């Protein structure tokens, strides 16, 4: 019985005699019992529902199935196209985080993509996002303090050396996770001919960790754990995906996942609710957050809103590759001066003095030059 029929019965009850009211009440109860029984039969046998109801149920189930497991799916709150700019010595990067449109995303300070085969003259600022570096361009001797850098090679290789005697080359698929801590001076230069492509992420350190001793974690491509399901493959640089955990220790709790989705594939990834997160699209285009969102293409940073997980669909005819990066906010003041990131202006002044006078972590700066 719908609301209109109930209203008719109520009017009858108020307008009739006592005997008539009793008869109407009896009829009303019989009718309601029959209505409840019909609804019960529909539950037992869904084929008795109407075509329109079946269609609506199918749509609801389809959308629910695509975001299953999330109480609050994360949606895209901002889309930023990485901007090309000069860095280092003749290198060009495509910066997505660390510019006016998105200065920081706590705990992340910068993301550069060096996948563009371009040349120019730049100035060292200690931040690298996405671009390509070809010899003789590169990032010669420069300092860091107060944060971590994560370099992920997509093609080619980069040779790294620092004033503490560390030296090595990372190649396609390799990762170097460097904690600058109290201070380091190093160089990052192309290894071999041709374009060297990759991503570099800057992750802030809390005030209690900014002056720790520098350290490195290097992962060869073959050592990075992988998982695959229904056309979605993931390389787990940090954090967990599809039940597989990375061995990398992250001083600032961080998730760093490299996904590749075949055409028609989709993936649902859990993200801790208290963390900030973003996506950077390396190649292809995909739908992020909800099924009816507009597709987003390569070189875009997608800042994610609050929630407990992200859903992604590849509805194109080509593979979609993107990194999903999320981390626990530090919730402390950030004062940055180029490659130095501290909590106060006074700490920045002290860092500049330490660097200029080769002290408090920069003792080797006076004599060391990369080879």
From TrEMBL:
Q: Which CDD domains match?
A: cupin_pirin_C, cupin_pirin_N
Where in the numbering of this chain does the Pirin N-terminal domain appear?
A: 94-203
Stored InterPro entries: Pirin, Pirin_C_dom, Pirin_N_dom, RmlC-like_jellyroll, RmlC_Cupin_sf
Source species, please? Answer: Salix dunnii
What is the name of the protein in this document?
A: Pirin-like protein
**Record domain Pirin C-terminal: where:** 256-360
SUPFAM superfamilies attached here?
RmlC-like cupins
**Family named by the database record:** Belongs to the pirin family.
